[in-house]
Design brief:
The structure holds 2 protein chains of 2 kinds.
Chain A: E1 7-9, H1 14-21, E2 26-29, H2 35-40, E3 48-51, E4 61-63, E5 67-71, H3 76-80, H4 90-97, H5 102-107, H6 110-116, H7 122-129, E6 133-138, E7 141-146, H8 147-150, E8 151-153, E9 156-157, E10 164-171, E11 178-184, E12 194-201, E13 206-212, E14 219-220, H9 222-231, H10 238-248, H11 254-272
Parallel strand pairs in A: 1-3, 2-3
Antiparallel strand pairs in A: 4-5, 5-10, 6-7, 6-10, 8-9, 11-12, 12-13, 13-14
Helix pairs in contact in A: 10-11
Chain B: H1 16-20, E1 36-42, E2 48-54, E3 61-63, E4 73-74, E5 86-87, E6 94-95, E7 101-107, H2 110-117, E8 121-126, H3 133-138, E9 152-160, H4 162-166, E10 171-179, E11 191-197, E12 202-207, H5 212-223, E13 230-233, H6 249-261, E14 265-268, H7 271-277, E15 284-292, E16 298-310, H8 321-329, E17 338-347, H9 360-379, H10 383-390, E18 399-400, E19 406-407, H11 412-423, H12 425-431, E20 441-453, H13 457-462, E21 472-478, E22 484-488, H14 497-509, E23 516-520, H15 537-564, E24 572-574, E25 577-579, E26 584-586, H16 587-596, E27 611-616, E28 624-636, E29 643-653, H17 660-680, E30 711-715, H18 737-748, E31 758-759, H19 763-775
Parallel strand pairs in B: 1-14, 10-31, 12-13, 16-17, 22-23, 29-30
Antiparallel strand pairs in B: 1-7, 2-6, 2-8, 3-7, 4-5, 9-17, 10-15, 11-12, 11-14, 15-16, 18-19, 20-28, 21-22, 21-27, 24-25, 25-26, 28-29
Helix pairs in contact in B: 8-9, 9-10, 9-18, 10-11, 14-15, 15-16, 17-18
The chains are: A alpha+beta, B alpha+beta.
């Protein structure tokens, strides 16, 4: 379980990284927490690894009046360690703190996780529900992709071969916004069996509810979100949740429905429960 | 003073300093000049004929055809109906499971060796895979071993008074339970480094093994060498659990390469190889029928046990050990008189079975303890009460049970009652009356077992093994400065024997354990022992250490008396000194005389000196039975299927305790593995025999956050048959958790009519059972 031989490049800046990415067989390396094992198992066999994990321009967390801009190579631990000092997006720090184990969080990056697009990962769900925007930059310049449309399917995203996730922009929630995030993992640090997240931000007229840990990208439950925004827990009956789940994720079997219903109930309860 | 480091002392482990500072020395840490790393091409198919194996000419690649002079590994058993099979270190003609070694390549680095593997082309002709043991048992057309007439390794039958005792039983309860296949997952997997030493005309194998002396025998025989031409050294070993109780094909391959090329070859198993090719334990199915009276007193038991044995009989413990243990240990700690059992061990296209910590007892305990609870439900009594009334009472000890096991000592009922009290059972029953605010369901479960430990020749001979343990030997030698060297042929891989053997020696000699060196696991330096397994080492090799130390005492007195100019009869040995009428003299002074000033010795001194090898086996070799009751409380989430352990109590009795901290540590570790069996660990296969858990993302192990704060309590009933009344205890912790937790889960879910009876109890299995119960309300599971 040792990787096949590959070349390794540590680019000085984004243009150099993007140029190298264009080459046949090249692959971007972030924290390596998913790609590393795939290399060892020889499931991934790039001829060139372009390591952007240490690029300073991708490692910054910056605040603007309306949003936070989080660099693509910012680690989960960096976000976790901003607990209490990410006004408007505190939920991000809480989600970061729940990813895998600290040793994984120390290396794993937000951009790497998004680009890898594991259906059970935290960031695809959290960034979709909070309505973040992915900034992708490539040879043709940079473009914005809404996080809830970024992941297409398992291990498949909107990114083009030469594109790098430069940053994600996360809009600030109002002070009165309420959020909920629940994932059910068989054990601490494992990928979840079911996950759900909700953001209710009345002043900004936002009501979003997503489920994750499916066969593909996170799915939105907009009608349920709107109902919960209006009526609170009263809208979150078991029947209503199961109906919404069946519509959003028809592939779920009885057990999957039960687990996801449990996750949705708990996420909603965190946001609007007693 | 003198005994403060002896039996019962809470002394810190001597080996901790090197382990905790990362200074252990494992095969992975070793590097010899010119060493080559070996990688194995493993079968991608569960069952296929090999049509051809090709690779570029001159490549550093070897298949079985090149391994001239090597014999296949054969592990026969004398058990009735046993069928013999061969295992070739590299596959010959057929592959029989995914992960079986087919060819090997070597190179300066492991990565390069794996590159070479990609150059090998194997043409297979696929055969139908035999994956389900029940189907394989019935299939005579497709066979794992084609020279057999079916797929049954062996069938064991035992009947002792069944008809008479079961007749007219008013209560009859049938229960079917299943334990799924697992991996043992030691932190260190297989590891071997073989080197030819021209100077001593010897093959040296550094191997991560529990049984170095047996590996020497097996390896020499397979390679056609004299036994004296092989030395096996087991350096630090990162966990064994039974996995390292076999002669591995990879050991043989590295040794053969070293012989052929006269340079060192090393192989280190990686985690994926372990999860795929090492999935070799726990898979049992039980069909039990209990016959009881109206109060739930068991009168007779009938059982059919099916063991999914995998493809090969591993050497030296054989595929017969597991069915032998299941057959003999199923009746557990209970007093009943009628027993009929049929145990069938079936060959399938999976890795060959190995005895995992607890061996078959984790399975039989799961089966019996679920049956006990089922009987209790049927007669409408508390499970602990029914269990209590069925346990062998203390006054019946020693007790010969229905399977002819001889239980030496103990108060099984007291342990159960103590567990119930420590758990505060009444409090939980009260709490169950009110629904939990979070919607979870609370349940309480018990499991009791007794465990044969430190059993000897007669027991292993009855299991038909090709090598059986007899006397264990230990060597002790006083050093010139009055310290002590202790050498034994067992090996320590987490058991703390460098400490406990020193404690036993201290008890006799009074020498500070800091001045003792315990050397284990090297056939070149230690006397013979079959090794560390079956919870035996502290009794067997420990007994030999005690015997050897005791044998030196009269020599101390003889020399000491002479040095003090006193009569031998006027002197005695006490706390590391020979005490005479006027003065006393230390072991250090005696050693000084023996080694440096022989002119001071008595003229007729015992010329064997200050060292000796002694052997030991208990007065009766049928085993010292440790026992325990585990009691736990769980909260089951009916929405998510999640099980949380709220409290876990263990009351155990392993006779006289040598080091309470080590006993606690062993109990804790075993119980953690038992929780793995109960809730997390499983090696599933698809219908084609492809293993579905090949990384630790798929094979879940409990971590610190999943484990409860085990509350461990001890009783100490000495064994009448062993030195100091010590019983073995290394495996016990792993036996009861699946049963205790399953009984608690079923207690929690009884309002739904759900009865789980399969390991592991994953959220999916629990929710499927709840869904099923919802569809068929009122139809209770068996």
């Amino acid at each position: 379980m040792k990787p096949a031989a590959f070349e390794y490049l540590k680019p000085r800046d984004l243009p150099e990284a993007a140029a190298a990415l264009g080459a046949e067989g090249s692959k971007l390396l972030g924290g390596g927490q998913s790609l590393g094992p795939m290399l060892n198992l020889r499931l991934a066999r790039p001829s060139l690894l372009v390591d952007v994990s240490k690029l300073d321009s991708l490692r910054r967390i910056e605040e603007t009046p309306d949003l936070w801009r989080i660099g693509g190579s910012v680690t989960h631990a960096q976000i976790e360690d901003r607990r209490g000092s990410l006004p408007g997006i505190e939920m991000m720090a809480e989600v970061a703190a729940g990813i895998a184990y600290r040793s994984v969080r120390n290396r794993g990056t937000i951009g790497g996780s998004l680009a890898h697009a594991d259906p059970a990962a935290d960031w695809p769900l959290a960034l979709a529900v909070i309505d973040a925007t992915v900034i992708a930059s490539g040879k043709a310049g940079s473009r914005k992709i809404p996080a809830d449309r970024f992941m297409i399917a398992t291990f498949t995203t909107e990114l083009k071969a030469d594109e790098i996730i430069e940053a994600v922009e996360v809009p600030k929630l109002s002070a009165s916004a309420r959020t909920g995030y629940f994932k059910f993992c068989r054990k601490t640090g494992e990928f979840p069996e079911a996950s759900a997240a909700i953001v209710l931000d009345g002043p900004r007229r936002v009501a979003r509810l997503f489920i994750g840990a499916l066969n593909g990208a996170p799915q939105s439950l907009p009608a349920l979100a709107a109902a919960v925004a209006e009526k609170g827990m009263a809208a979150a009956s078991k029947e209503a949740i199961v109906a919404a789940l069946k519509a959003a994720a028809p592939e779920l079997d009885a057990v999957g429905l039960r687990m996801h219903a449990g996750a949705v109930t708990r996420a909603i309860s965190q946001a609007v429960g007693p | 003073m003198g005994k403060e480091q002896g039996i019962g002392a809470r002394v810190p482990r001597k080996e901790d300093a090197r382990f905790l500072h990362g200074r252990g020395n494992y095969v992975s840490d070793m590097h010899l000049d010119g060493q080559r790393e070996v990688a194995f091409l493993r079968s991608p198919l569960a069952h296929a004929r090999i049509k051809s194996i090709r690779w570029p000419e001159g490549a550093p690649i070897v298949s079985w055809a090149e391994m001239a002079g090597v014999s296949p590994i054969v592990a026969p058993s004398n058990l009735p109906t046993f069928k013999i099979s061969e295992q070739h270190p590299l596959a010959f003609e057929k592959v029989r499971f995914v992960g079986e070694t087919v060819a090997m390549a070597y190179a300066p680095t492991r990565a390069e060796a794996e590159d070479w593997l990609e150059k090998i082309e194997v043409e297979y002709e696929e055969l139908p895979p035999l994956i389900d043991s029940h189907l394989a048992r019935a299939n005579k057309e497709v066979r794992v071993h084609e020279h057999w007439d079916d797929n049954v390794f062996l069938t064991l039958n035992l009947d002792n008074g069944f008809e008479e005792k079961s007749r007219n039983a008013p209560v009859v309860v049938r229960k079917q339970v299943q334990l799924n296949r697992q991996v043992m997952v030691p932190m260190e997997g297989k590891a071997a480094l073989a080197q030819w030493d021209e100077r001593v005309d010897q093959l040296i194998l550094y191997a991560s093994t529990q049984i170095p002396h047996m590996i020497r025998i097996g390896l020499a025989d397979v390679l056609g060498l004299d036994h004296g031409q092989v030395r096996v050294i087991s350096p630090d070993v990162g966990g064994g659990f039974g996995y390292k109780c076999q002669l591995f094909p990879e050991d043989v391959c590295c040794a053969w390469l070293a012989l052929k090329h006269r340079r060192p070859f090393r192989y280190i198993e990686d985690r994926r190889e372990h999860l795929v090719a090492g999935a070799n334990c726990r898979q049992h199915h039980y069909d039990l029928t209990g016959y009881a009276d109206e109060k739930g007193r068991l009168l007779a038991l009938e059982a059919e046990v099916t063991i999914d044995g995998g493809a090969h009989s591993n050497w030296p413990f054989t595929i017969g050990l597991e069915p032998g243990q299941a057959t003999g240990n199923l009746p557990g700690p209970y007093e009943f008189q009628g027993y009929r059992v049929k145990t069938v061990c079936v060959a399938t296209n999976k890795p060959g079975f190995m005895p995992y910590r607890g061996v078959a007892r984790t399975g039989v305990c799961f089966a019996m303890e679920l049956l006990m609870d089922a009987i209790a439900r049927k007669v409408g009594r508390e499970p602990w009460e029914v269990r209590h009334d069925n346990l062998v009472p203390a006054e019946a000890m020693p007790y010969d049970n229905v399977a002819k096991k001889h239980y030496d000592s103990g108060d099984y009922r007291k342990a159960l009652v103590m567990a119930r009290e420590k758990l505060d059972f009444a409090k939980w029953r009260e709490r169950q009356k009110t629904p939990e605010a979070d919607g979870r369901k609370i349940g309480v479960g018990f499991a009791s077992y007794c465990e044969q430990t430190a059993h000897g020749n007669s027991v292993f001979a009855a299991w038909g093994l090709p090598i059986t343990p007899g006397y264990d030997q230990a060597f002790v030698r006083v050093t010139p400065d009055g310290g002590l060297e202790i050498r034994a042929g067992v090996h320590s891989h987490g058991q703390g024997m460098e400490t406990t053997f020193a404690q036993l020696a201290h008890e006799v000699m009074g020498i500070d354990i800091a001045k003792m060196r315990v050397l284990l696991g090297d056939t070149g330096l230690t006397p013979f022992s079959t090794g560390t397994y079956a919870s035996r080492s502290i009794v067997m090799s420990g007994g030999a250490v005690v015997a050897a130390c005791k044998e030196l005492v009269p020599r101390f007195v003889e020399i000491g008396a002479h040095l003090m100019q006193a009569a031998v009869v006027a002197c005695r040995f006490e706390d590391g000194h020979v005490v005479g009428p006027q003065s006393k003299i230390s072991v250090k002074d005696i050693a000084d005389a023996w080694y440096k000033h022989p002119e001071r010795l008595p003229p007729n001194v015992d010329r064997t000196g200050l060292e000796i090898t002694m052997a030991y086996k208990p007065e009766r070799d049928t085993g010292a039975f440790a026992y325990a009751t585990h009691a736990c409380v769980v909260a089951v989430d009916p929405e998510l299927g999640h099980v949380e352990i709220l409290d876990y109590v263990i009351v155990e009795d392993c006779g006289t305790i040598v080091n309470p901290m080590i006993v606690d540590g062993q109990t804790f570790g075993g119980a953690a593995q038992g929780i793995g069996t109960a809730l997390y660990e499983e090696s599933p296969y698809d219908a084609n025999g492809q293993p579905l858990a090949s990384t630790l993302a798929d094979y879940l192990l409990p971590g610190p956050t999943e484990l409860p704060n085990f509350r461990i309590f001890h009783m100490q009933t000495p064994s009448p048959y062993t030195h100091s009344g010590i019983k073995g205890m290394g495996e016990g912790g792993g036996i009861a958790p699946p049963a205790a937790i399953c009984n608690a889960v079923n207690d929690a879910l009884k309002e739904f009519g759900v009865e789980m009876a399969e390991t592991p109890m994953t959220p999916r299995r629990i929710l499927e059972a709840l869904e099923q119960a919802q569809k068929n309300p009122g139809e209770k599971a068996a």
